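Hi R.,

Here's the chain you asked about this morning:
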Amino acid sequence: MKVALGSDHAGLELKIYLKEELQKKGHELIDCGAFTLDKVDYPDYAGKVCALVRAQEAEYGILVCGTGIGISIAANKQKGIRAALCVNEFMARLARQHNDANVLALGGMVLGKPLGLAIAETFLKEPFSGGERHIRRIRKTMAFEEEC
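And here is the predicted structure, written out as C-alpha cells:
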C-alpha cells in the first residue's frame, strides 16, 4: 500500500518511527517532511500529504504534529479529505469503517511509539464497511465543501 506521510517538528520522531516500521511491513511510504527538528508550520505538511491523497498518488495519508489537532484541522480544510484524529485503535477502526477516512492524524507528544504504530496499522488495514447510512452521512458531510 502506498501511504503519504508528513509531520511538523513536534511529530518528527513518531513519523520517523512509523516510516521505518510500516516499510518493514511492506508499505511504500512517500515522506513529505519535515526532516529536521527546526520549527515548521504543520499546515504546509498537511497540504503536501493531502495533495498526494487527492491526486490518488497515495491511497492514504498519515500526519503527525504535537497533539494531532492542528494538523487534522489543516487536513480537513482541503477538498476531498476526511482526516481522523485517533488516539486508540478503536477510533482508527471506526474512522475507516464508518467514515471512510483517508487521512490519519496522530499526536507525537501524546502517543507512545508502539501505540502510534498500532493505530496506524489498524487504520491502514481496516476497510470501509459501506452501508447506506454511512454513505449518506459521508455525502452530506462532503457536500459542505460545495456549499462554502
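One quick note: The CA atoms of residues 7 and 15 lie 6 Å apart.

Cheers,
M.
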